[in-house]
């Protein structure tokens, strides 16, 4: 006898079993426990019952299939209908999240909970502060397991927006993560978001790939310096190189404004052997030189990349050589 | 070891096992995505030339019946029979039409594709499905995965539903220009393009949204959606209206080719682990396949794997997301990759001896990685596999069949 069938508390419920039919696709060896729980969930959803036993049942199903997309929604609706304790639910979700690192639904559920909780505390700065602190400490716990967990970072961005965390503390916490792993590209991306979507200093709706004239020069300078420092630490790390390009575009500045910096990692003497400490620096300089119309120099850099410093991308560098030459011809004809 | 090759027979056996035997209990966590698993199985067998057209008619009928059993009475499909109630529950008994467990966008995409392997699209509730699809679009152009009884659109705003919506629309509508009435019932394509454009971020790739980190999966979904609605450069000859879908294609290409990571075989890795242990702390987090100080690899590598984000580990599925993205930016663009190294990585490192592909070297095969490994080789024109249509992620031949089935269903 199943767990629910034998339980007097569920006596009044007629379960709705699944009908898979013959020759079904992708049949799964469901356990009897799962099949029974699902048939009771279907009965609950059909009756639109929102009760404590629905919470227990949904918890049971989530423990077996955390990716069930409607059980989470039904659980949230039940919690709200019962006026349940949201903080208690946040704690429960925390444990589930730590056990299911790859699950998406958990984070959506957590957002629903915060959205529900927020209006009840939005006028109390201390409560908001506490919420931000406890959420950030939970995310730190998640990052200790995997500092690049995509869902956690999505949630982080949601929280920054919701609780207006475009602040110094947020930048500092990113720096802490980058100090332990300067190649954490998720942290770099988050920094870009926190700096360049901060409503205080940016044009609303400005996209990641656009120049934003509203950003103060000091911020552009500060971010350039930040990426440079990280590059000196690990020149072959592509994250700060990408970041630098992004910052320059936001600031409406040319790549060539950083020619000197990139040249720190690239020495190509007239005669004798070159000294290259970063393929990304060479790539950057190739773009600088192409931008300045120095076609031969750009070509030489791309050739070095394909032949020696980044051979696995040989085909790509050859293609870039073709593009630079074409561009040169086009400019020459003008 | 001789010349690496795809062991076609073993792959067919692997997929036939997936088709014929019950999947182990561990797959319970994918119960809500059974339609996706079913699609992978049918399409893999098609790519390998052992598709549903070779099954006994009774098996085809059973599969067709099962898929149709997951169709929502008001349009769209559900992820598995566990999400579909008996018909009586949906009837309006004075409280409006009951959605029960609502139809789901990914399930709908995979169900329609799967049906195309086993017969016809005539029983797809086309008009209802297209009307439902329109209700999934939000004001900002993005799509959700489902809409609740209360009219709330649920699911992320990322590129996956954008792609799925574009593909479902194409499978049901095709490429012919719409009449004014049809336009009124159609999704807002301009807003969709705008939303996708907004997802491109500072390093050239596409992210869940512009606020987040670029990811090969999202980049591929964005490019696939644009390809299907003909907003990529090479398809401008067909439609010239509206803004192009990507803001900066050379930057996107740079980001895509940067996903290639040289991979060394295990015995060499051991040396590297030792070296890594004594490396200074500033190199913490360096992946073991990352070249050592000063960070440049001057030698040739035999194997080239792909990561999905900057500085992440290689994984079979990213070979697909990256290769397919480049293929859609122009068929010649896949030549920008190190196809030889990438082919060898798949065949010698993640191909499993029982057939299928694992996520990473040494891993057991699973349905998801096995399909995407195979599909990558199909784009690279591996002998013995049918050529792939990267936007729909089925054989080019199957794409044609979908067009024929659509026309047949429409002229019924």
UniProtKB/TrEMBL annotation, chain A:
InterPro entries (UniProt xref): Prenyl_trans_a
EC code: 2.5.1.58, 2.5.1.59
Name of the protein in question: Protein farnesyltransferase/geranylgeranyltransferase type-1 subunit alpha
Family to which the UniProt record says this protein belongs: Belongs to the protein prenyltransferase subunit alpha family.
Keyword Transferase among record annotations: yes
The keyword Glycoprotein belongs to this UniProt entry's keyword annotation: no
Alphabetized UniProt keyword annotations: Magnesium, Prenyltransferase, Repeat, Transferase
Cofactors: Mg(2+)
Organism expressing this protein natively: Hyaloscypha hepaticicola
Superkingdom per UniProt: Eukaryota
Phylogenetic classification of the source organism: Eukaryota, Fungi, Dikarya, Ascomycota, Pezizomycotina
GO cellular component annotations of the record: CAAX-protein geranylgeranyltransferase complex; protein farnesyltransferase complex
TrEMBL record, chain B:
GO CC entries: CAAX-protein geranylgeranyltransferase complex
Keyword Signal: no
Cofactor: Zn(2+)
Domain Prenyltransferase alpha-alpha toroid: 6-394
Molecular functions per Gene Ontology: CAAX-protein geranylgeranyltransferase activity; metal ion binding
Pfam families: Prenyltrans
InterPro entries referenced in this protein's UniProt entry, alphabetically: PGGT1B-like, Prenyltrans, Terpenoid_cyclase/PrenylTrfase
Key word Protease present: no
Keyword set, alphabetical order: Metal-binding, Prenyltransferase, Repeat, Transferase, Zinc
Protein family per UniProt: Belongs to the protein prenyltransferase subunit beta family.
PANTHER family with a match to the protein in the record: GERANYLGERANYL TRANSFERASE TYPE BETA SUBUNIT, GERANYLGERANYL TRANSFERASE TYPE-1 SUBUNIT BETA
UniProt-recorded name of the protein: Terpenoid cyclases/Protein prenyltransferase
Species per Swiss-Prot/TrEMBL record: Hyaloscypha hepaticicola
């Amino acid at each position: 006898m199943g767990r629910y069938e034998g339980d007097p508390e569920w006596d009044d419920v007629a379960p709705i079993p699944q009908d898979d039919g013959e020759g079904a696709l992708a049949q799964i060896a469901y356990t009897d426990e799962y099949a029974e729980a699902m048939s009771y969930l279907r009965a609950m959803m059909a009756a639109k019952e929102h009760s404590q036993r629905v919470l227990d049942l949904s918890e049971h199903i989530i423990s077996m299939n955390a990716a069930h997309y409607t059980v989470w929604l039904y659980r949230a609706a039940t919690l709200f209908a019962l006026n349940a304790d949201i903080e208690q639910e946040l704690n429960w979700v925390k444990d589930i999240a730590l056990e299911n690192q790859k699950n998406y639904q958990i984070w959506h559920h957590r957002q629903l909970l915060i959205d529900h909780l927020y209006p009840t505390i939005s006028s109390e700065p201390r409560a908001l502060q506490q919420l931000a602190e406890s959420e950030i400490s939970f995310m730190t716990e998640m990052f200790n397991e995997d500092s690049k967990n995509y869902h956690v970072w999505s949630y982080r961005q949601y929280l920054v927006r919701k609780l207006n965390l475009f602040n110094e503390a947020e930048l500092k916490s990113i720096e802490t993560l980058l100090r332990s792993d300067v190649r954490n590209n998720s942290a770099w991306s988050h920094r870009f978001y926190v700096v360049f979507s901060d409503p205080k200093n940016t044009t609303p709706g400005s996209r990641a790939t656009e120049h934003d004239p509203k950003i103060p020069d000091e911020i552009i300078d500060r971010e350039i310096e930040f990426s440079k420092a990280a590059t000196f630490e690990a020149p072959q790390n592509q994250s700060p190189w990408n970041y630098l390009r992004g910052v320059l575009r936001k600031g409406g500045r040319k790549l060539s404004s950083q020619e000197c910096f990139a040249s720190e990692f690239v020495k190509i003497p007239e005669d004798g052997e070159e000294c290259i400490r970063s393929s990304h620096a060479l790539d950057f300089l190739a773009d600088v030189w192409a931008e300045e119309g120095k076609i031969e120099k750009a070509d030489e850099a791309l050739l070095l990349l394909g032949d020696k410093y980044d051979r696995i991308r040989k085909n790509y560098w050859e293609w870039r050589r073709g593009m630079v030459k074409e561009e040169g011809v086009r400019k020459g004809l003008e | 070891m001789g010349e690496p090759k795809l062991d076609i027979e073993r792959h067919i056996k692997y997929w036939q096992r997936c088709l014929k035997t019950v999947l182990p209990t561990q797959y319970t966590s994918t119960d809500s995505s059974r339609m996706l698993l079913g699609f992978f199985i049918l399409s893999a067998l098609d790519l390998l030339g052992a598709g549903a057209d070779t099954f006994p008619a009774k098996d085809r009928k059973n599969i067709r019946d099962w898929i149709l059993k997951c169709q929502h009475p008001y349009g769209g499909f559900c992820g598995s029979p566990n999400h579909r109630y008996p018909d009586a529950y949906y009837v309006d008994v004075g409280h409006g039409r009951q959605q029960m467990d609502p139809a789901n966008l990914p399930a709908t995409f995979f169900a329609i594709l799967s049906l195309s392997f086993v017969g016809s699209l005539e029983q797809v509730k086309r008009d209802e499905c297209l009307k439902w699809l329109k209700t999934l679009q939000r004001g900002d152009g993005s799509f959700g995965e489902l809409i609740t009884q209360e009219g709330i659109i649920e699911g992320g705003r990322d590129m996956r539903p954008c792609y799925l919506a574009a593909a479902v629309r194409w499978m049901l509508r095709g490429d012919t220009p719409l009449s004014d009435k049809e336009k009124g019932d159609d999704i807002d394509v301009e807003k969709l393009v705008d939303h996708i454009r907004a997802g491109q971020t500072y390093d050239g790739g596409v992210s869940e949204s512009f606020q987040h980190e670029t990811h090969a999966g999202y980049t591929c979904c964005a490019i696939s959606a644009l390809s299907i609605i003909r907003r990529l450069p090479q398809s401008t000859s067909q439609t010239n209206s509206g803004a192009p879908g990507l803001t900066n294609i050379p930057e996107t290409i740079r980001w895509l080719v940067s996903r290639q990571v040289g991979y060394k075989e295990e015995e060499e890795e051991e040396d590297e682990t030792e070296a890594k242990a004594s490396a200074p702390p500033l190199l913490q987090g360096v992946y073991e396949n990352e070249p050592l100080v000063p960070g440049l690899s001057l030698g040739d590598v035999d194997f080239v794997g792909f990561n999905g984000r900057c500085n992440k580990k290689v994984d079979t599925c990213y070979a697909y997301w990256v290769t397919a993205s480049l293929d859609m930016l122009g068929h010649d663009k896949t030549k920008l990759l190190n196809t030889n190294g990438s082919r060898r990585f798949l065949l010698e490192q993640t191909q499993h001896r029982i057939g299928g592909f694992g996520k990473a070297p040494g891993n057991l095969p699973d349905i998801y990685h096995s399909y995407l490994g195979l599909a990558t080789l199909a784009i690279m024109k591996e002998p013995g596999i049918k050529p792939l249509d990267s936007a729909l992620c089925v054989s080019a031949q199957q794409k044609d069949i979908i067009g024929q089935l659509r026309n047949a269903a429409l002229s019924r």
